[in-house]
Amino acid sequence: MRLTGARILMECLRAEGVEVFFGYPGGVVLPLYNTLGEYPDIKHVLVRHEQAAAHAADGYARVAGRTGVCLATSGPGATNLVTGITTAYMDSVPMVVLTGNVARDLIGRDGFQEADITGITLPITKHNYLLMRASEIAPAVKEAFHIASTGRKGPVLVDIPKDVFIEEAEWDGYPQGVSLRGYPIMDVPREEEVDKAAEIINAAKKPIIIAGHGVVQSDAQDELLEFAERSDTPVLTTLLGISGMPEDHELSYGFLGMHGHFYANMAADSADVVIGIGMRFDDRAMGRFADFNKTAKIVHIDIDPAEIGKNFKTHAPVNGDVKETLSRLLPQIERSSHPEWRTEIDQIMEQHPTDYIEEGTGLGGPWLVRALAEATEGQSTIVTGVGQHQMWAAQYYPYTKKRQWVTSGGLGTMGYEVPAAMGAQFAQQEPIWSICGDGGFQMTSQELQTVADHNLPVRFAIFNNGFLGMVRQWQELFYENNYHSVDLGQPDFVKLAEAYGIRGIRAATRAEAMQVFRDLEGYDGPVVIDFQLEREENVWPMVPAGAALSETIESADDL
Amino acid sequence: MASRNTIVAHVEDRPGVLARVASLFRRRGFNIESLTVGHCEEPGLSRMTIVVDGDDHQVDQVCRQLFKLIDVVSVQDITYVPMVDRELALIKVSASNFNRREVLDVVEVFRADVVDVHSDALIVQVLGDEGKVDAALKMFEQFGILEMVRTGRVAMLRGTETTKPPAISDSQQAAAAIRAMLGRRPEGALPFASD
Description:
Number of domains of chain A: 3
Oligomer: heterodimer
Largest interface: A-B, 38 and 40 residues
Distance between the termini of chain B: 19 Å
Radius of gyration of chain A: 24 Å
CATH topology of the largest domain in chain A: Rossmann fold
């Protein structure tokens, strides 16, 4: 059967089981939009800016555990995706990005709305394609989904010139497999690596697990828990590893890093064996490399061979998929217990709890997150932007469910909170809480219209302190209170919501906030809540930039 | 220890592969001394010989990052393996009737070839490893070098061993072969070392 390139692409998406994708039309993708009506089972969500299409696909992917898909036209449409693609790349989120390009004979001639998007995205995609024939579409899309969703996941871009959408090619079904010689699946670890890791772990007196995004990505929460329980190893997570370990478990000690818990940082720093699982020993998590726990032996389990030994010398590298590796490691792990070590951490936790909730009636970040946690019984999916609100959300909400936490960790993309929550809401029925900064919210608030179009029950909780809070905190602490460009003017967020036909609420006190939570019970439409926070609250504890985890400070007095 | 390392990579012969490799080197801040690319025994694949400046840890990272490129089929660091490496230089040397004999003496010592003669210049072709080419250049400098070009290094393992990439048939075997190629542990000064 001969089909146009546009139809072949849609047949491929259908064969991949794509339910929803996020896009924005434009000249060169018109042949594709011309066929969308024939594929009503593949929902196209019209965003208001292409950056949002990429973040929405990313948010959807993280919550659904499937590959997210977004689409943009050539030139500015494609370049607007770049921040969203990079966000997904840094956090290893599976995504297939489709772009149109100018007709083949115009490529390289600076035609109207031409951008070399495959060139631009070389360093921010796992792989990309520029397709010059309609017959290449099916195999390339098959490969794109395969590459995006296996190994260390990530975004793959497929760029299709306008006349390739129109060109016809033979369609004889979606390809069954891929043939990628340079991309073997490395899921199964080497036996000798597993043996060595088990040996070190079994000999540990003060072991600690640092679980990363890889645990979430490979759905290995159950294996992690079993491993931790059997070896009686306390579990820390990285920022992105949150929700990889139920935080109500006695072995869970929360997340470590720049704004991680004091006790988590100390535990990582005083362990005798550090077991990194599906994480990459990032600087924000580990502090100054040279002074991170100099005596510990490091076991590192990761799917990406390039992460092993990148930042730290590793005693027992294990290259493999987290789930696969843990299930092979488990039988070799001796049942043990480390009561003294646990007591040591418990004591630090008692003396240095992350509990900066102040008395009073005004709204503080920590109080508000705690109140939200109580109102939602800790069951809500939380999406955040980047900054103080993100750190409070990480510190004070008790994450116990899988894929409950969605945040831009690697790239730290402000403005992520609005479109990512929107995309994530397409993956689940229960309302998602998007914890927004007043700065980030203003970067992507145009998507309120998309949210309204689909009547999505997202709760946008703006942690509004009228400041670019985290930047202000740094100016206060490290630049002698020299505030510059952090005092943000802002619209009336309630009126803004109402202008989009969305319910807008303002809360300036604790009593008002509690009332908001009560009012929203059972409400199934979108809401924007302008929580007016105290203006100059800081996030504690903190590892100052360039300091070691052991130098974590708990107030400005420690500086 | 920082030194010049030789990496052999086989890559899919597709448009844009060189850009991907170059982009990776630029992005990760790796220093390419030379990069030579051409056909190899297998149609559809190209063979790159890359000379990288860096310590063992950096070179290990180069290999691992290179391998992550989908179009890169195999990567092998052959710096410490018995191998033959060669490069070719064309050197345009100033030579007149007065000193041509002296220039030709140097040519002979290096077993180089004269590939073009003019009343005021010669083009000398030198073939050898990097050290030999360096030495030849140094000798020709006294006559005046008008122009020079070097190809960069190509290399091949000695004996029957090859750097050929694993066949595609079995993904597990391919993974094992790749891991063996990437097996060299970093020895360099990393931030953390407890033993």
